[in-house]
Amino acid sequence: MLEYPLLFLFPAAMLYAAVMDFFTMTIPNKVSIALVIGFVAVALIGGLDWHVFLDHVGAGCLMLVISIFMFARGWFGGGDAKLLAAASLWFGFDLLLDYTLLVTILGGLLASAILTYRELVPPMWIAGLGWAERLHDNKAGIPYGLALAGAALWLFPTSQIFLMHAA
After folding, report:
1. Based on the structure, what is the number of domains in the chain?
2. Is 139 left (phi over 0), alpha (psi -120 to 50) or beta?
């Protein structure tokens, strides 16, 4: 019963990360830290089997290694890398492929939308709107936190962690 309020942490943190990334092009470390601590709390309070717990930790660690590599290559921001790993912790290997595939699709759509925005919207229309100017800057990245959060929110109701407590 105590884990029910903790289940709201995941969607709230992912939504917060998306909003922050959209408006500031940063994802605060506290979001990823809260997701990791929240997962451990839900697992302990909810009585998650140790082998299932290790499955989820393995998925998070795998995605951390992959996302660090992507960050080192300049393909991903640091906040995106940490958020991807923390979100993957909640999905485990059961939904990891689904999550990464959905992130890829949503990320491609997001990148296309941002690049179109940069091409079609004249800079004078957004003058003085800091967040809009950041999104318009060709030297700025793409706020992939939106794709990470969108995919996470889409899949969370089908996750083992959610379904375990929904019954």
Report:
1. 1
2. alpha
Structure tokens at 30: 């506290």
Contact 35, 89 (CB under 8 A): yes
Query: How buried is 49 (Cβ within 10 angstroms: 0-12 exposed, 13-18 middle, 19+ buried)?
Result: exposed
pLDDT tens digits, residue range 21-38? 999 999 999 999 999 999
Tell me the pLDDT tens digit for each residue of 50-102. Answer: 999 999 999 999 999 999 999 999 988 999 999 999 999 999 999 999 999 99
pTM of the model: 0.92
Give the closest residue to 42 by CA, choosing from 145, 163, 148. 163
> What is the average pLDDT value for the chain, to the nearest integer?
91
Cα 73 to Cα 163: distance, rounded to the nearest angstrom:
36
Domain residue limits at 87: 3-166
The helix (run of H) or strand (run of E) holding residue 122 is none
Burial 113-143 (b: 16+ CB within 10 A, else e): ebeeeeeeeeeeebeeeeebebbbeeeebbb
